Amino acid sequence: MLDILYQDDALITVNKPANLAVHRSKMVGNAEEFLIDLLREQVGDSVYLAHRLDRATSGVLLIARSKEVAAALGEQFMGRAVHKQYLVVVRGWPEPAEGVIDYPLPGSRETGPRREARTRYRQLATIEVPIELGRYPQQRYALLLAEPESGRFRQIRKHLAHIHHPVIGDCQHGRGDHNRLYKQHFGCHRMLLHAWRIRFAHPLTGAALEIEAPLDAAYAGLLDRFGWTLEEE
């Protein structure tokens, strides 16, 4: 059963598990299960995606119960009226600890035209672990709050890789040696990118909604191990 965070007659928000594909596409290859199909069966009604998350990303996903609501939510996303916050663990400690990555990105095709893209980030916690890797006897990692101002394909992952602080567990844009370290030493087998909160206006009433998706056991367990806590804002 999918974890439904909020639902009414117009929309549903789900806490998407990591490594579950949202829908059928060429990007997900040989996936056997898709969130949109599971949710349709769970609620016994038609559902329509309002936005998407990468297969490896977990967290809050917004889904409409009609095509009209999906279109209205789509207009909010296009107009950048939807505020999204992600929790992400990266290699290294970004400098400065708070900033904006302003770097144009292509779409799903790397050879396609680049469009403006901006991601705000803020460092929430850091750690240095005494594990040797390469020429360094210790490894540094940071927990960031990332807020994409635009919605480009794999934007957060690409932007953090661009500033040399890739997401842990990212097989396409990350560092294989650090990904293996997390599997071997911390038993972590997922990408550490989580869509934590989303704020938007209800498409029918205009009321402000903020939905928060709790971390799964693997992600939350890692934060506990590192002594990292999330403060309410």
Write up this protein.
The structure is a single chain. By secondary structure, the protein is an alpha+beta fold. The chain is 21% helix and 30% strand. Strands 1, 2, 3, 4, 5, 6, 7, 8, 9 and 10 form a 10-stranded mixed beta sheet that branches. The radius of gyration is 18 Å and the shape is globular. The model has no long low-confidence stretch (mean pLDDT 93).
Q: Looking at the structure, what is the overall shape?
A: globular
Oligomer: single chain
* Proportion of helical residues: 10-25%
| Main sheet makeup | 10 strands, mixed
Q: What string gives the helices and strands in order?
A: EEHEEHEEEEHHEEH
| Backbone structural class | alpha+beta
End-to-end Cα distance: 30 Å
Total number of beta strands: 10
Total count of helical runs of at least 4 residues: 5
Low-confidence stretches: none
Question: Roughly what is the average pLDDT, rounded to an integer?
Answer: 93
Quick structural overview:
This protein is of the alpha+beta class.
Detail the topology: elements first, then pairings.
Layout: E1 3-7, E2 11-16, H1 35-43, E3 48-49, E4 58-64, H2 67-78, E5 83-91, E6 98-102, E7 118-129, E8 139-148, H3 155-162, H4 176-186, E9 193-201, E10 208-212, H5 217-226
Parallel strand pairs: 4-9
Antiparallel strand pairs: 1-2, 2-4, 3-4, 5-8, 5-9, 6-7, 7-8, 9-10
